[in-house]
Amino acid sequence: MITPRIGILVVAYNAVSTLVDVLDRIPESFRDSIDVVLVSDDHSTDQTYETALEYKERTDALPLTVVRQPRNLGYGGNQKFGYRWLAEHGIDIAVLLHGDGQYAPEVMPELVEPLLSEQADVVLGSRMLTAGGARAGGMPLYKYVGNKILTSFQNRVSGLVLSEWHSGYRAFSLAALERIPFEENSDGFDFDTEVLLQLYDSGARITEVPIPTYYGDEICHVNGLAYAKDVSLDVVRYRLARLGFGASHLARWASAYEWKDAPDASHRVALGLADELVPPETRVLDLGCGGGLLAAELRARGHAVVGVEAVPPPGTEENVDRLVVADLDDGLPREAAEDGPFGLVLALDVLEHLRDPGRLLREVHDACSADAVVISSVPNIGHWYPRLRIGLGRFDYDRRGILDSTHLRFFTWRSFAALASRSGWRVEERRLTGLPLEVLGWGTRTVGAALRQVDQTGRTVWPSLFAYQYVAVLRQDPAWASVDESPVKSTAVEA
Description:
Elements: E1 6-12, H1 19-24, H2 28-31, E2 34-41, H3 48-58, E3 64-68, H4 74-88, E4 93-98, H5 108-116, E5 122-126, H6 133-136, H7 141-158, E6 170-173, H8 174-178, H9 191-201, E7 206-210, H10 224-243, H11 266-277, E8 283-287, H12 293-300, E9 304-309, E10 322-325, H13 334-337, E11 342-348, H14 357-364, E12 368-379, H15 384-391, H16 413-422, E13 425-433, H17 446-461, H18 463-466, E14 469-476
Parallel strand pairs: 1-2, 1-4, 2-3, 5-7, 8-9, 8-11, 9-10, 11-12
Antiparallel strand pairs: 4-6, 5-6, 12-14, 13-14
Helix pairs in contact: 7-10
């Protein structure tokens, strides 16, 4: 087994009086495990850089590299530089250490251990895990109370539960950092919150270890009120982005197609319709099957499923009877059609990704039995959220949801039904889905239940404004003679 290479990033700004002591306190028993200690002086106005160089010349106890930034990058900007530098030099584990002495170098082995044992991707040093430790270590009461209030708020909003969000003592797997766009984060002190949100969203394993609290004569460069505002806005933006409201660099970096488990979400609606409308042991064609999560549910009911996906995630083959890897923008793949005739075709969250969705719907005819059912879902561009965005002149793409950046086509109910009619399908039934509140983890909470009730009432009163997605049941139109002829009959639909 190859031993991971460890690098220490010491971020320093006007730390001339504390830096040497911080370096001296790195445990001697741990020093042989360290490949490099990078001291990054963020364009200090004192002699921090010169002090670090003198230390390097005076002793070889640490594998020290010293750099001075040509301009002040900010706390977050200095970290960005450091992580890039360490990654470029082949380091596997990065430990963030402050040059002002606020965090104890003595506990560095404990901080790194979960990474070395592959139990975590991120380790946070927490001053709140030891009861009474923060106050005993000199943390001022107002900072202690503010820390607890902010941490509680960030936990509740983000879904990530930590004892403390505001410790700057951390260790990272650089492989985990390279999976997220940390370069897009703030250059200020809320970088620490933003990088945690990105790592949490990417599925990184985050753990905490207790560290001692130390407050000495160091100068605090943080504007407390501005910092509180910034980190609060960060977690709110993260939550909204996960829901599909607004583009954010903080959320949705996992690309896996997720199971939509709410009772009124498209997957549950489609599964219920399949149970109602198709007989046992039906052959199913799942277009854009993702990881085959819905296919697995159908197979458990006795159906045989052929899945088509351009970039199937690992494990997809286990959820389908046959997997066809193909881009549906090129039309229905022949190898999938040959497995027909199909009694059920699923086109869930797929038509909006195609340049010519009508072509796919037309080609599906030849792969289906005469009484086949097509269940399709599309996002509703008439929903109040995109209407509001456009009305405010702020149209832009999001990282998920109705305005997902991968969507090429946008539908109202009328335009979708017209597309189906032109492609030889008549609408037999329409269902409406609600806001994906389950993404927020609020499905069982009082707030989530109240929001879901309001959303459901809105769909009942004004469907075109409150429907998040339309789920349609389609059957072949007898008046549509063949895919080579223009349709001569249109289907009247509800506006």
